Amino acid sequence: xxxxxxxxxxxxxxxxxxxxxxxxxxxxxxxxxxxxxxxxxxxxxxxxxxxxxxxxxxxxxxxxxxxxxxxxxxxxxxxxxxxxxxxxxxxxxxxxxxxxxxxxxxxxxxxxxxxxxxxxxxxxxxxxxxxxxxxxxxxxxxxxxxxxxxxxxxxxxxxxxxxxxxxxxxxxxxxxxxxxxxxxxxxxxxxxxxxxxxxxxxxxxxxxxxxxxxxxxxxxxxxxxxxxxxxxxxxxxxxxxxxxxxxxxxxxxxxxxxxxxxxxxxxxxxxxxxxxxxxxxxxxxxxxxxxxxxxxxxxxxxxxxxxxxxxxxxxxxxxxxxxxxxxxxxxxxxxxxxxxxxxxxxxxxxxxxxxxxxxxxxxxxxxxxxxxxxxxx
Length: 377
Prior knowledge:
alpha+beta, single chain
């Protein structure tokens, strides 16, 4: 494969047969949409959507000191994660800057003295995370393994997803809590069944061997037909996560920001045993955020119809007070929305006089608390 050739998932032929509009995403040729992204978005909110997420980066860490390595390499308390559970966390540089946000699953113990963890990194950062974990593993009795080619990842998201999946698996979905994962079979295919997602809805992510991906996609499509399940691309995944106030690396998260700058300081666990990469810098960042808050991540809802985009200036009283990080039409709200970092003095919901500079015109926006949308449980 040449350096410019895009990688294709095991479901590439399926996407093309469905007439998907394909796009380059982090070096992968991925489905952007199959038809109307608004229809795909609304299907996830009201029924169910099926996603191919095989571009995500899976890394396995095993060995007697796997937990100790991850406690040192990541900011969270990974040793405290029980078997079968998952945790949202981050990997930071020594200066506290965010390298990536991650989900870590603790899988079943492989043997008496050994643990196994599956780490899922963003596609754009998978190599960076792999390199950092490999470097940080020096001195630990643990192995870091690149498993990006070992998995295909399918997601079923939306209120009808439990019923659709239940018809295909003997796994105990009722007992599977949010941010938990268990091995099982789905349509006869061995899978790690995880109750995680990036849409703001209930749903599941299914990790399987790539050779089983097409078979599983077809089984899920057939099982979901009567429930209104539709194939969904990356475009509606972005509007879904934006409505749910979920950060996206490269937009709300970057190496120039610490977890405290992003309003996610809760993922940093200073009380865990031992040192971890970035501890000193993150302690300083926590103190700064407590005494003199930097810019705060807020939600913005348009009063008009013009759509804000990443990089647009947020303004008040003729001054620039912040910057949009993500913006899009919100099908569920029926209005354009954005996430933005703004000066703390203008971050309170309802702060008057806030606007976004859209090509020289200051469009009025309402400051709101995140998330914009929260599902009824």
